[in-house]
Amino acid sequence: MTFQNRMKIPRPDDMHLHLRDGEVLKAVLPESARHFARAIIMPNLQPPIATGAQAAAYRDQIMAALPKGMEFTPLMTLYMTEDMDVEDMAAACHGGIISAVKLYPAGATTNSASGVRNIDNVQHVFEKMEEIGLPLCIHGEVADPGVDIFDREKEFLEKVRRIRLAFPNLKTVLEHITTSESVEFVKEQDSGMAATITTHHMVLNRNHILAGGIRPHYYCLPVAKREHHRKAVLKAAVSGHPSFFLGTDSAPHIDSRKESPCGCAGCFTATNTISILAEIFQRENALDNLADFTSRNGANFYGLPVSDSTLELSHGAPVDYPEKIHTSEGSVTVFDPMMPLHWHVETRN
Ligand code: NCD
Ligand code: ZN
Q1: CA of 30 to the centre of ligand 1 (A)
Q2: Alpha-carbon distance 74 to 209, whole Å?
Q3: Strand, coil or helix: what is 166?
Q4: Closest CA to 284 of 332, 237, 251
Q5: What's the predicted TM-score (pTM) here?
Q6: Gap from CA of 139 to ligand 2 centroid (Å)
Q7: Atom of ligand 1 at shortest distance to CA of 175?
């Protein structure tokens, strides 16, 4: 491919985003809204967003926090629980309030305690979702404390296989995949199955977290794996394959909660994600596939029109971005990709 120093892509969608609420929401929302048209908003607040009314109220809270002049559409999700009201879910779907339902295995990650303990107990939820065409987003890790943390994603694939077999028309997204096994699994499935890939999992392997010192800002769930897994995930992302698309899983935590003896999981990448992705895709000679990954594949999967506004990128001197975003509750560290970034995003705001 000939080198280009300017490019235009349809405004991206972030198909997996944590915005939190309150003061943190106000501080982090512009970081996403500056570059993204839409985002699938994760429901793992405390308490979780588990009803249509809660999803509508959370959507209003997000829109109220959006700075004047910025355009951004939050696509809301419900947090799946074993005792959820499927009629309420169906009404929220038909009312256009929610775009997906998120399955967290109980105990698998941040604020997942009210998640699903046993998948057998939510078969009726899957059935209803399949019937009404409501997509399922899965945090695909087993939460069994006896399973090594580096094997938890691989072990979960059997459960996904069972869900796919029982509900072949249920649109299913395996979120934030980190292993070659997940890449292969998704490729074997039909177009009703997709996976999101985060920015940080294209950059990190487990040495970055643990070798030469422990780096809490690189700790997220699923935890980054060995280098060959990083390469497999990266290859899937840059391939242009329609079943892989961007879900940053940008997950802000206040620094004091990350830099702690028991630090929270999550990388905050909203601020520099697009510059990082352009840099990575360029290094992989795949800039032509960037827009598929950031702006087309996800929209197509969710049945949304590709954004008709554009984002312009230009290549030049290293991009300056803040090390931290300040909130009234404390600072949030922006993900350090360990490489200079040269793709500037030209924003309207
Ligand atoms: C997420 C969070 O902080 O809410 N953390 C993370 O490490 N990704 C939860 C999640 O998506 O697992
Ligand atoms: Zn997440």
Answers
A1: 20
A2: 31
A3: helix
A4: 237
A5: 0.97
A6: 8
A7: 11
- Say if residue 340 is preceded by a cis peptide, omega within 30 of 0: no
Q: Which of 91, 20, 27 is nearest to 49 (CA)?
A: 20
The answer to whether residue 249 is catalytic is yes
Q: How many CA atoms lie within 13 A of 81 on its CB side?
A: 16
Q: Label residue 349 by pLDDT band (50, 70, 90).
A: very low
Structure tokens, 343: 């793709």
Rg of the Cα atoms in the chain: 19
Tens of pLDDT, residues 125-137: 999 999 999 999 9
Separation CA 202–CA 186 (nearest Å): 17
User: CA 270, CA 158: separation in Å to the nearest integer?
Assistant: 32
34 C-alpha to ligand 2 centroid (Å): 20
Atom of ligand 1 nearest to the CA of 252: 3
Q: Are 191 and 212 in contact (CB under 8 A)?
A: no
Render pLDDT for 89-120 as a digit per residue (tens, 0 to 9): 999 999 999 999 999 999 988 888 899 999 99
